Amino acid sequence: MAGTKVRVEVGGRTLSLSNLDKVLYPETGFTKGEVIDHYVAVAEPLLAHLAGRLLTRKRWPDGVGSQPFFEKNAPRGTPDWVRTVLIEEHGDDGVEYVVAEDLPTLVWLANLAALELHVPQWTVGPRGGIHDADLLVFDLDPGPPATVVDCCRVALLLRDLLADDSLEAWPKTSGNKGAQLYVPIGQAVGGRTSAYAKDIAARLAHEHPAVVVATMNRQARKGKVFIDWSQNNPAKTTIAPYSLRGTEQPRVSTPLTWDEVEGAGAPSDLVFGPADVRARLDEHGDLLAAMREADQSLPED
Q1: Are residues 97 and 217 part of one domain?
Q2: Range of weakest confidence among 226-230, 279-283, 286-290, 296-300
Q3: Average pLDDT in the 1-9 region?
Q4: How confident is the model over 238-247, as pLDDT tens digits?
C-alpha cells in the first residue's frame, strides 16, 4: 500500500522506513527495500571508505526513470544522531554536510532514495576541521565507441607510470561507463594532488595520443579515454566504492583485482549488480582494504 511505513531497530536506533516495495529501478523491478538491503550488506567496507568524508547524495525519490537531484545540505528532518559538519566556506551560507559513520545513517539515506554516494578525496577531523587530501584519484571516462575495456588498458598504463614514482594504485569500476584508480598518499594539499595528476595524465596523452586524452574538450574524446585529473580539486567528489548508480539497472561501483583489469575482454565482464558484489565480498573481502595501510606519498617536486 502506498505510503506504508514500518518502524525498525537498526544499530540501536529506531528508524521509520517508507514504501519499501516502491520500484526504484523499473527495468528490473528492484525496490527501495532491496536498495536498503544492498547498503546493509556492504555497510562494513562502505563505511570504512566513507569515514570522515562529507557526503554529496544523488537522490531518485521516484526511481531512476525520473529526474534526480544532488543534495549536499542535510535535509530537513535529519535525525539528531546523524553526524553533520558545517563547512562555512562552502556556498554563500555554508553547507551542513552529512557524514555517514554508522549503519543507521546508511539505512536512513537509502530510505531517502539516496542511491548514489559521492565523496571528496579529503576528510574532516572529529571537530570538523578540514584535512588535506589523502587520496589521489584518476577518473577514466571512455568517449564512445571506447568502453570500460579501453579504460582498463589505460589503467594499466597509469599503474606502470605511477610505479615509476613508487606509488601503488587500486582499481574499481565507476558502476557506469568508466573506471577509477585510487592512490593513497598520506596527506597533501589539494593543489598539489591536482597538479601531479594533471602532469601524469598529460604525459600519458602525449605518449599514447591514439588512446588517451587529458583535455576537457569533449570533441577530442571520441574513441579515446579521458583521464579526468580534475577530480582531485578539493571541490570535486567521486562515486564511493560499493555505491549504487542511478543506471537503468542497479549497478555498483566495484573494486577490481589487477588480474580482472588485465583480463577484461568485454564491457559485460565489468558489470556488477548488488548480488554480484555480495558474492565478491564473500570471496575476496574488500579489495580496497589495503589502501588504508599503504605508506606512500607524492614524489617531491
Answers
A1: no
A2: 296-300
A3: 80
A4: 999 999 999 9
Structural domain boundaries, residue 218: 132-293
Three-class SS of residue 205? helix
The verdict on 220 and 269 lying in the same domain is yes
* Total domain count, the chain: 2
- Does residue 42 carry a pLDDT above 60? yes
118 and 169 in a single domain? The answer is no
E strands, the chain, in order: 5-10, 13-18, 23-25, 30-31, 56-59, 69-71, 84-87, 95-98, 114-119, 122-124, 130-142, 170-173, 179-188, 212-213, 225-228, 238-239, 244-245, 251-252
| Residues 54 and 106: beta-carbon distance below 8 Å | no
The domain boundary residue, chosen from 107, 124, 141: 124
Instruction: Specify whether the CB–CB gap between 297 and 134 falls below 8 A.
Output: no
Of 105, 124, 143, which residue is a domain's last?
124
